[in-house]
Structures are given as C-alpha cells and as structure tokens.
Design goal:
CATH class of the largest domain: Alpha Beta
Bound molecules: guanosine-5'-diphosphate, 6-O-phosphoryl inosine monophosphate, magnesium ion
Strand order of the largest sheet: 9-7-5-2-10-1-11-15-19-20
Strand content: 15-25%
CATH architecture of the largest domain: 3-Layer(aba) Sandwich
Radius of gyration: 21 Å
Distance between the termini: 24 Å
Helix content: 25-40%
Largest sheet: 10 strands, mixed
CATH topology of the largest domain: Adenylosuccinate Synthetase, Chain A, domain 1
Structural class: alpha/beta
Shape: globular
Number of strands: 20
C-alpha cells in the first residue's frame, strides 16, 4: 500500500513538515521526482533541517528512505546533506537507499541551466539553477548517466563524451565560467555515492509492498509547477503529480491509496510566472514577513497572495486528492479580513477553470470575503477549540473543492497540527 503527500500549489506548501509528521505510520518514505531544487524544512527536537535530496523521513529511526528513479541526484548536495544530518545524530548509512536508475546531475547541467537562464533576458523561468532542466533533458534525450553507471568501468569515458556534448552547448551560449572546481568536488562526491546502498528501486519497493509494508511517497515542488499541467513554461521539469509516483518509483496505480494534498491557507510562488491572486501590497508584505516566506533553497523572497480555489480544484482533479492538509493557517492569525478566490474573470467572462496559458490572458480573480479570526491559534490542539471564523473558512473550502480539509497545521513544529 502506498500513500502520497504532494503539493497542490507552486511548491513550499510545507510538505517536509507533513511528511515528517506522518512518517511514523510508514515503513518506507520515498522521493519520486525533482532534485535539489526542493527545499523541505523540518524541525527535529527543535532543530531546523532543510532537506534537498534526502526524503523527509530520515530523522525517524528504522524507517527506510529511498531516493527513487524519478529523482535527479546531485551527488555534491547529497554528500553535504548527509554530513549535516549525521552531525544531528541521524544514521543515514543505515536508512538511506538510492535507486540505480536515478539520473545524475552533472556540473555541466548546472552550468547549462545558468547559461540558459542568462540567455533568456526578461523571460527567465526563475530556475533554482541546480541543473534540473538540463538533467531531465538528458534523461528524455537518452543521454544521461545514472547512479547504476557509477559501478561501470566505462563511467569516466561516458562522462567525458557527455562533457564534450555539453561543452558545445555552453560554447553556443558563450558561457565563460570555469567549472573545474565543481568537477573536482563532483568526482569526490561520486566516490562517496559509490559507498551507498544502491538498489534496484522498483523490485526493492514492490517487494516491501508485497510484504505488507507501508510506503509514503513524498512529492517535491507542487502541482502548478508540473511539467505538463503547471503554468508552462514557468514550471519545473518533472511530473510533480500523483501519476509521477508510478513512473518515479516503479509502482502500479492500484497500489496508491490516500493522496494527501498539501496547501497553504494562502498562496505563494517563488520564481517567475503567472500568479493570479498575487498581492503586491502591504497585505502581501505582511504575509511574507509573518510567514517568513523566503525560499528554503535560494533564499529569494516568495511572492504571496490569497488562496486560489480555481487552481486548487484543478490540482485536486489531476491528483485524485483524497484529503487536504492546510498548512500555515497561523500566518493569517492577525488579518481582520481574508479573501478566497473562487473564480476568474477572463476578458470580462466568468470562468472556473485553469486556462491553457495563464500568462496569455488577463485574469481578474473573483473573491469571496471572510472575516478573519484574529486569534493566536498556534497552541490549539483540538479542532473544537479553533475559532468559529476559521471553521467557517475551512467549511467553504470543503464545500467548494469537494475534498475535505482533514488536517490543519498551525506552526512549524512537528506536533503543531490539528485533526479536523
Ligand atoms: P516544502 O518545500 O513544501 O517542504 O516547504 P518549505 O519547507 O520550503 O516551506 C515551508 C516553511 O513553512 C518552512 O519554513 C516550514 O518550517 C514552515 N511551516 C510548515 N508548516 C507550517 C505551519 O503550519 N505554520 C508555520 N508558521 N510555518 C510552517
Ligand atoms: P519544494 O519541493 C518552490 C520553481 C523555481 C522556478 C521553477 C523552475 O521546496 O516545494 P527549477 O529549479 O526546477 O528549474 O525551477 O520552479 N521551483 C520551486 N518553487 N518550491 C520548490 O520545491 C521548487 N522547485 C522549483 O523557483 O520558478
Ligand atoms: Mg520548499
């Protein structure tokens, strides 16, 4: 049996905290897509950890954590992250496994990402510049190197061949930066990677499922950043939705049971691209400040706005979401009035769907106003004790989306969560 936790917005919904919270119910926690563009924050014994490559179940003893084949892996980031968690007493050597089919991010992928963004002028995607796009391009272009190849004698020869191809691309961008120090670090990190538990991920996970073990698949990014269904081209390069669990781990769709969709009580986006409910005013600024909305991976300020039920409903549809987990509800504590976008006005016409290309049309969000609760909810543990105004807000979401909000996260701590 497999449950999924994934983001319903543009990433940073609080997936890391939620995976960490639920991990004790599972035997295996597996990342199925994305790479070090992800930044998943958890607090273990009050100490903050930001994970980019390692699944968010790592702090739990005796839980298998798997980096699945759908992930792209930066060995340098992984090595750094392993050192960090080891310093906090986490035994990653025992619990962390990597699929042999996982593609490697090479130093030249990072360079191409950077060169490509620089060449875009005003049309930049706002990539995290971690080499995600170029690594997935090499995968679908049938060129990439995989973790399993590390054990091949021909690895270095294949690397050099690919390096030459990439150099041609870098030359075409007129990219001048010297990446030799990245390469040195990369080769060191590969030696570290060779010492890992490298497994055939699909047999590994299916055998666990056959034995009755429970798997939690951890998504990165969010549904509106999905390469097919997101706000293309302002998206990431992987399938961030529940379908990505099947291809990213090698499991059949019938094995998936619950799909937990994580959404903030408002909305954020980091990087460029359309964001209909964005607030470019003091309320947006207040949410950014109160919510500490700065990227976990890049430190960039996140754009903030009201919750958008048009995109949320779309995300529930494409993912088959069975339960919603609403995070950062406490960030709205001080606001006297809240707005919920329940439709779009496009060229003067009322619409309730996500248009083909959001940035080609002028979207005027339609809002319903709600009275804020103006109470500190961070210490509440019982749903009944939540303010009536908040229950009213949640009831509207439940009705509109047809999927229940089952958990309300009211602080960054592992235990700050209320069951509805
Ligand atoms: P992820 O990428 O989806 O894992 O989310 P990030 O870790 O990038 O960003 C979420 C941020 O919000 C982190 O700093 C979390 O510690 C924090 N966070 C998560 N849930 C809550 C919550 O309910 N309330 C508050 N105040 N912070 C939260
Ligand atoms: P987590 O897992 C928020 C955004 C980038 C950029 C676009 C493409 O922490 O939620 P990429 O590096 O993939 O080429 O960038 O996607 N992006 C994220 N935004 N959270 C993330 O991950 C993101 N990963 C990528 O800002 O707009
Ligand atoms: Mg994040």
């Amino acid at each position: 049996m497999v449950d999924v936790i994934l983001g319903l917005q543009w990433g940073d919904e609080g997936k890391g905290k939620i995976v960490d919270f639920f991990a004790h119910n599972y035997d295996v926690i597996a990342r199925f897509q994305g790479g070090p563009n992800a930044g998943h924050t958890l607090y273990v014994d009050g100490k903050k950890i930001v994970l980019h490559q390692i699944p968010s179940g790592i702090s739990h003893e005796n839980k298998v954590n798997l980096i699945g084949n759908g992930v792209v892996l930066d060995a340098i980031t992984l090595k750094r992250e392993c050192d960090n968690v080891a310093a906090m007493g986490v035994d990653y050597k025992k619990n962390l496994y990597i699929s042999e089919r996982t593609h490697l991010i090479l130093p030249t992928h990072r360079a191409i990402d950077k060169a490509s963004e620089l060449s875009k002028g005003n049309e930049k995607i706002g990539s995290t510049l971690k080499g995600i796009g170029p690594a997935y391009m090499d995968k679908t272009g049938r060129n990439g190197l995989r973790v399993g190849n590390l054990l091949d004698k021909s690895f270095t020869t294949e690397y050099i061949k690919l390096r030459l191809k990439h150099q041609k691309m870098l030359d075409s961008f007129n990219f001048q930066e010297d990446i030799s120090s990245w390469e040195e670090e990369f080769f060191e990190a590969l030696d570290f990677l060779r010492g890992f538990k490298i497994v055939n991920g699909e047999y590994f996970i299916n055998e666990k499922i056959r034995q009755g073990q429970k798997v939690l698949a951890e998504g990165a990014q969010g549904s509106m950043l999905d390469v097919d269904f997101g706000t293309f081209p302002f998206v990431t390069s992987s399938s961030t939705i529940s379908a990505g669990v099947c291809t990213g781990l090698g499991i059949a769709p019938q094995k998936i049971k619950e799909v937990f969709g994580v959404s903030k009580a408002y909305c954020t986006r980091v990087g460029s691209g359309p964001f209909p409910t964005e607030l470019n005013d003091e309320t947006g600024e207040l949410i950014r400040k109160t919510g500490n909305e700065f990227g976990s991976t890049t430190g960039r300020p996140r754009r903030c706005g009201w919750i958008d039920l048009v995109t949320l409903q779309f995300a529930c549809m494409i993912n088959g979401v069975t339960q919603i987990i609403m995070t950062k509800a406490d960030i709205l504590d001080a606001l006297p009035e809240l707005k919920v976008c329940n439709g779009y006005n496009i060229n003067g016409e009322a619409k309730n769907y996500v248009p083909f290309q959001m940035n080609r049309v002028a979207i005027d969000p339609v809002y319903k106003n709600f009275t804020g609760w103006q109470k500190d909810i961070t210490t509440i543990t019982d749903y009944k004790a939540l303010p009536a105004e908040m229950k009213n807000y949640i009831a509207y979401l439940n009705d509109f989306l047809g999927v229940p909000v089952k958990y309300i996260s009211n602080g960054p701590g592992r235990d700050q969560i209320v069951v509805a």
